[in-house]
Amino acid sequence: MKQMTSRQSEILEYLRRFIGREGYWPSIRDVQEHFGFRSTNAVMGHLRALERKGCVSRIPGQARTFRLLNDDGLPAGTIETETIPVYGSIAAGYPDRVESSGEVGRLLVDIHTANIRRGGKTFALKVTGDSMIGAGIQSGDMVVVHPGIPRDGDIVAALIDGETTLKRYVHPRGGTPYLKAENPSYPELYPTTELLIQGIGRAVIRNL
Q1: The model's pTM
Q2: Contact (Cβ atoms closer than 8 angstroms) between residue 202 and residue 122
Q3: Has 167 been annotated as catalytic?
Q4: Which one, 16, 62, 68, 124, has the greatest CB density within 10 A?
């Protein structure tokens, strides 16, 4: 590798730490905000410099896919990312009547860490409440959700009697499916009229 400037070294260390902590490549705006750059062009300039110096590389044809390089120039690991929509919040407490107002943002995730397929109908929701703390899901986390048919024990985003919530799906053999919290302070939820599963939780993303 060629010698780097102090700023380039700082950015490279930030990339390594971010990927190690979050499991996905940071967005250009993440880098911009962390270092206080005035524009994203400054970030791209530094990334291109790191690419010329053999520290990072971009995979042709996949603009959102990056990889770090080892000192010998070999890949240190490819991060395949997908941008998914964020559809507001979901209660991890008592169900609420808040309806989605459509897409409120976008989230860049590593498809392998998030256990999702590229090009699917995956979306994300911001968690509010503490009913799922036993499953490691805290208020303020982002939960990555993918549509599908749930299995007994899956964590799901559900619509129960017209109200939305994030809970564990329980389907007793020969019995009626219900929702279970991962906090003993909350009761089990049995549907009176309907229980619709909007998606299965695939991953949790937390900002430190």
Answers
A1: 0.63
A2: yes
A3: yes
A4: 124
Cα–Cα separations (whole angstroms), residue 177 to 43, 132, 134, 169: 50, 18, 20, 7
User: Is residue 164 within 8 Å of 95, Cβ to Cβ?
Assistant: yes
Rounded CA-CA distance 189/133 in Å is 17
Among candidate residues 27, 101, 126, 167, the one labeled active-site is 167
Residue 98: predicted pLDDT: 46
| Annotated active-site residue in 131, 139, 180, 185 | 131
pLDDT value of residue 67 = 75
Q: Is 131 in contact with 150 (CB distance < 8 Å)?
A: no
Q: Please list the residues that pair with 158 across neighbouring strands.
A: 165, 197
pLDDT along the chain (208 residues), means of 10: 80 86 78 91 89 81 67 59 85 66 78 74 92 94 92 95 94 93 96 94 82
Roughly what angle, to the nearest 10 degrees, separates helices 6-22 and 28-35? 120
Nearest to 203 by CA among 133, 153, 155: 155
CA 159 – CA 147 distance, rounded (Å): 13
Whole-Å CA distances, 181 to 93, 97, 133, 186: 8, 18, 9, 6
pLDDT recorded at residue 159 = 93
Which residues are CB-contacts of 115 (< 8 A; sequence separation ≥ 6)? Answer: 202, 203
Domains of the chain with bracketed CATH:
6-79 (1.10.10.10), 82-205 (2.10.109.10)
